[in-house]
Amino acid sequence: MESWGLEKMDNEQQVRPLRHSSDLNCDFSNPDKCKWRNLRLPGFDTLDFHLFRKEDYTEFPMIQVRPGPSRVRVGDQLILVGDKKKQEQSAILISYPIKCQNTTGKLTFTFWLYNGARLEVIILEQRDDGKSLHILPEKPHIDCGTVQINTECTALIPSFDHPFHIGLKAYDMRNVEGSFVLIDNLFYEAEFCRVSIDFGPDFHSEKLISNATKGELVDKPSSLSCNEFDENCKWRNMGFGEYGIWRKAMGILSPTMLFNETGTDIQPNLPAAFLYIEEQIIYSSHISSKDLHDSSTFEVNDATKSFRMLASDPIKCPGSTNIILQFRIWSTKGIQLNLCLFERHSMQQLEGQCKQVPLGTSPAIVQQQFLTPSDTTEFMFVFLVQNVNKDFDNFVLLDDIEMVTDKYSSNCGDSSDMINKGWLSDKGIFTTPMLNTLLNRPIHYSKDLTCDFSKRALNCQWSNLEKLTDGMAQWEIGILSSARNLKINENSLIPVGDIALTRLDSHNKSAVLVSEGILCTLPSQNNINGNSGTLSFRTWTNGNGIQFGVCIIRADSFEVLECQNVGGNNGEDGDEILVEVPHLDEPIRFALRAETIGENGGGIIAIDDLKFQGEICSSKHNIAFAAKNSNLRNGNGFNHKGERIISDRQQNGIEYNNIEQIKTIPDENVCRLLSCNFDHDGNMCLYTSIRIASSISMFRSYNNSAFTVLFTRSRVAILESPIFNLNTQARLHFDYFVSKGPAKLHICQDSIINDLSSCFVISTEGETFGWKHDFIEVLPTDKKLYLIARLDGKGKANVQIDNLELTDVMDNRIC
Questions:
Q1: Regarding the domain delimited by 668-807, which CATH topology (the fold level of the hierarchy) does it fall under?
Q2: Across the strands, what pairs with 734?
Q3: CATH code for 432-649?
Q4: How far apart, in whole angstroms, are the C-alpha atoms of residue 605 and residue 593?
Q5: What is the pTM of this model?
Q6: Are 16 and 34 in contact (CB under 8 A)?
């Protein structure tokens, strides 16, 4: 065994009153986070506990070292105190202070005694306004069961209406041959008194729900006005933070609390935007563009997590010089709140466009004025908490938000240029990423290639390339802001619904939209030229020097077989384009390629109503087609290019005389649903665990795993997956660990054919003495999985599950 000190755990500067009983849970795997410390006041004890790590497989002698388990796994950390002196030695481990406790608490822990050493639970009371500690004479009884071998113990802590500490005192260590006490796995369950701000019985908060999106431009400044914070509000949470999130405040605030916390007795007219921040949270002021680019994964830095920001929908102000946002604010003392402008696409703070909100005039109307960004810049207003008083709870209330318009900002959101420039412009349309990706899903029928790009193309068999090289752009989903059926001229109509579009903002730029693989195309009896069918779609362009083509490429290597230019800036917008597809006896894909030509080329091109009418080889038939040269018939309009659709997709060593059948890859979305590593305590991903009859054990996220404790009166715990819909067979891998007692692990598949139709026993060996790995085959008929832990025999057992990951049948990662 190896030992070292507990300097960070014993740092008295970090000691603060506990908010939740679970804060006292500690298995010493990360002692810096434990809310326990050595008591270092004169006259209480003589020794300190030290941290030890088990480094070998030696078991403790069951009779001499007990009542804890004789087997401790290698790598486990616990604390130890001991000595070889004849004089009696003692050591006290004390909890962080508890302000008060409403119910009887239950302390569960494991300990070992050797050579006459003893352990007792004590309660220490704060006296003289917290300046001194006093050990109460009443000592809670430690219950280790009838047989005090290989067991854990409990002690009941009575309720208190004043501050106190829980202590573990090791004593009677006075054997010259050596005596010691070991402690591990501290867990505490109780209901502490409320330590947060009391807003009064007439106040509550609920989830902030609005129709704000991640990209829709507002058409007028008044759209950003918000005082009810209902579904019509254009403000939303942005970023990621586990400690604070903007909510909707409802009801009436306690007048006494309002005056004590904010310094004013003027009540806000709720509802309002509300952010509550617990104490002990330190925030960094550094925010990078990478942190903000994806608002669903916003992090301030690696050390701390920030609370979320309150952001508006984007707006643009052409021809304006100044913009003003006004609002009312109520907040606790010590908060620093900034109002900033962020660029819509890069999610970067605009230089010099961030101002601290003055809190001294609260709750009078606050006006913040900014210089207007450039005419083409689309920006958002963002409220960002920069600093808080970490010694107390904090809150912010925002209400009566309004964008003020005057002669300098009258053009904000003006949509008149949408008609002048046409609907296909940044003003007339907003974009959002496609949700689909290339998964090699089977193409059974030609109708599977139909796509109207609704639901962000989620159900389409078309997608962007997985990797883009320099000079390539993404296809996105375009949604019209207004005037969906406005007729531009006699031959051109604005499309109805969602479309696919790409922005080619410079010369030598291109974008490629690729279909899923097709085993082959068959001659159509309805086509007089013997071709397989017709690919049709509509296009619209806004720009110059844009060329659009339809290509047929090899499914595996992405090598271009044939291409046909079908226009771009040529022809009328909205015209239906028809492309004849020849008979091909090898696996292929369709590729739609837009590219700029000339030095001044660039603009926007959109497509919609993709259809293929013809005959294809169904992927349902398990047939491998050999690649061979196609007999291209005259009149189909294709010409041979002899190139690859993109160079970095070339696969070395492919022999086209023996192309393998296209293999179906499991759905990446299902992979995201079922994969979980439980890295954040309290976060179970999308898995759930509920109590069942005659058992109270449940899985919970603890110590970077899904963890449960089984005992005689609570023998079963179930970990339940979310509902999923898998497109092909896959494997769910996982790690498991059974300790401190025998337990069996089962996995059950709840299929659409029979509920819980098949269950498999994963582990029957009882304790595993370390982490084990296994997997289960998941079928397309399965819709839910259950991992069931069951106590085998008497006593207790701990069961941990970790690293759930979905792969294909060859154990390749999917997501």
A1: Jelly Rolls (2.60.120)
A2: 774
A3: 2.60.120.200
A4: 11
A5: 0.39
A6: no
